[in-house]
Amino acid sequence: MKRFAQLYRELDQSTATLDKRAALIRYFKEAPPRDAAWALYLLSGGKVAGARRKIANTRELREWIGQESGLPDWLVDDSYDQVGDLGETLALLLDDPVQAAPDVALADWIEQRLLPIANKDVEVRRAVVVDAWRTLRHDERLLFNKLLTGALRVGVSQRLVQQALAELTGIDIARLAQRMLGSWSPTPEFLRDLLSPDELPGDRQQPYPFFLASPLESALRAEVAPAGSTDETPEEAVAPDIVALANDPDAVARALGPVDDWLLEWKWDGIRLQLLRRDGDVALWSRGEERLDGRFPEIETAAMGLPDGTVLDGELLAWREGEDAPLAFTALQTRIQRLKPGPKTLADTPVRMQVYDLLELGGEDWRSRPQHARRAALETLIAAHGAPRIVVSPRVEVDSWTSAAQLRDQARERGVEGLMLKRATAPYQAGRRRGDWWKWKIDPLTIDAVLLYAQAGHGRRSTLYTDYTFGLWDGDALVPVAKAYSGLDDSEILALDKWIRAHTLERFGPVRSVRAHHVFELGFEAVNVSKRHKSGIAVRFPRILRWRQDKPMAEADRLETLKALAR
Amino acid sequence: MASVSDDLIQLRPEGLYCPAGDFHIDPWRPVPRAVITHGHGDHARLGMGAYHTTREGLPILEWRLGEQIYMAHDYGAPFTMGRATVSLHPAGHVLGSAQVRVEVDGEVWVASGDYKRQHDPTCAPFEVVRCDTFITEATFGLPVYRWPDTSEVAREIVAWRERCGERGEAAILYCYALGKAQRVLAELAAHTDEAVLLHGAVATGVEVYRRAGIAMVDTVPVTETDKTTDYAGKLVLAPPSAAGSSWIRRFRRAQQGFASGWMQIRGNRRRRNYDRGFVVSDHADWPDLMRTVRETGASRIIATHGNTDAIIRALNEDGIAAEAFRTDFGGEE
Prior knowledge:
Structural class of chain B: alpha/beta
Largest sheet of chain A: 7 strands, antiparallel
Radius of gyration of chain A: 26 Å
Strand content of chain B: 25-35%
CATH topology of the domain at 2-149 in chain A: DNA ligase i, domain 1
Shape of chain A: globular
Oligomer: heterodimer
CATH architecture of the domain at 2-149 in chain A: Orthogonal Bundle
Number of domains of chain B: 2
Radius of gyration of chain B: 20 Å
Helix content of chain B: 10-25%
Number of strands of chain A: 21
CATH topology of the largest domain in chain B: Metallo-beta-lactamase, Chain A
Order of helices and strands of chain B: EEEEEHEEEEEEHEHEHEEEHEHEHE
Distance between the termini of chain A: 53 Å
CATH superfamily of the largest domain in chain B: Ribonuclease Z/Hydroxyacylglutathione hydrolase-like
Shape of chain B: globular
Strand order of the largest sheet of chain B: 7-8-9-10-11-18-19
Distance between the termini of chain B: 38 Å
Number of strands of chain B: 19
Number of helices of chain B: 7
């Protein structure tokens, strides 16, 4: 495990993408395949322990570390509070062993020591965990704890790992990405196939990696300040002045050029879906790289009418026949959860797929062809083979950015989130690549809400309170309505963190309730009626727009105001 | 509303005060007589009538505070202030740092100032002073703070500098200009002969330490280099305030590290975007805080700054009376 701990340390220490990639390449070049397969799995966000594979829950870990370190529970909790990361806290509370045990390979740690004790009696699990703590040095102990507590969170994107593997092996990154979609087992066999230069039979069953649009605001931000934009910027973190720019057709024209170079479509608020009609069968894949087979039988049936060797990209929406607009996203949620929907569900909440791209036709990969050609072929294909359940997402025809902006203003009434802008000459790319696909969302709805709870963030924010819960007035009480993580700048985060620590009322595990005082302007895409939330509503994509230091909390908005916006 | 207390040292708006001796310890507002534990800015401030310090600490106060009325005392040598007998004892924090022992009518209080128990080649080691009441710092008062061996960390700093050199980068290490910088330079002497470049603020302090006879690795002020200098593979010591300033641009390609006890926690390093964090602290870690308060034999503990809550509760649960003074001392390191 030393080698992987060393990689973890290098990734954790480095702030430069190039260095991280170099460290990954070094690791994959040297590590034995069994270890490398697990490393790949862990770096991709895979977990060893989980709900179905219980090795130690956080309560047990805190209890055991208390026993091992001789510290009372409250001191373990205070320490966790300061560090913000449980795995790290556990590693810091113990001294290194005087003599470290001989190194055990990562794969052996997982396969021979951890997996066999999953779901076993507490004494069996405790013995293995505590023994590891006693024999591993700090860096390996930290990593070991990370295996117990969940994902690694070491600032490495899936794409970065794929870039390293592509550079190491010379295999096309798109193929690697495709082979890593969906669920796979961290075995040497998987790794061998992943890195195989030949076309494999399995390559045919895999979906293509999704091409993801970026917020138009980030193109406008690049206009304002050309430097410093990266692919890692959180997509919903958009400063208010940029929001104003997004309402200016001239700014859009400056950033994107003539409107004729672009294909415009509505931006749907549904589930992104890839439909594979291959080898006499149909498979549906979500953007979360999950196969959705069986959940949407009406789509699968309709897709059987498509010619073999077809792959479509589009949006799944709950939509009643004859209606002008789709049902709200919450309606669709009732369908996602049903593995095998019954007749009543199918009748109450019918779904359809609005398709907007063609990735494969006649068994041939069309992704490198220009957007307009894929679009034209898609329209022809659906005209010949479509069904009411599979519909082409209509083009939005405009003659200027000004008229596009006017149509965008009507988006909320149409039940869409705004417009999609796609460069007519662009190929279909993999992942979130800037430049050719932009989402031009409607201005967010806004409310002024009061900070009620705070929780420490993750990664580089793990020592700060950065995850906030906000409430609105209902009578003379404040009711929680939204959680938001992004939108404040670093100095505001520091100031608020200090205030939160000084004004904590109660602690509930990692969460603190604070004195109701500070008001924040929140932006969000939509409000839906929800039975699952105490407030009776659910807001979509909430984020902080501004800290309203000028506003007393009595003037924050009322719950009724928000409910009136719900659909 | 004057509260009557028999405490030898009391918390007043201007700082820690000893009524029997009519003097203050590290006051933050102007007073006639101040006993100063060490030269850091939150402990040694301008505006006092007279400054009592250690002989070793005198040049440091002269550097930080300029011309003042100073009384320099040898470690362990008692002097009289009013009804109190006062003596200064090594605190192991930085050169000349002291704990203040105050004795009145047989009762003994010790104010620790800032202290550490780890080996430090630049200053006299901490001396355990038996007392009835011990006023302790608590900057790192949580059990996650346990310091690694500093010599080992010095080795890591050298390895980091070499790695930077291979990549054509300078290695800028931020550390406080008084104490930390000199300790790092002294520790480095055992591992390298390569001269270290210094920011002006650090260079002045290094000069003070050299005059005091502290052995350190060779140093060159950055001002003595010019535009043609190749900084690749050079270690540069600078105060944390230089981070993000135009001063660091001259190094063109550089990695930035920070030497501080706070670097024990990854989140602190990542939040400030340092490439590397090196755990070197001039404060006591948790095990040493707990060990020290016990070794003093004190029946009452007062914690002044840092994570006071945890140390107070932990001591109280162990049957040692502990409480806090809210002081203006910072947790900066």
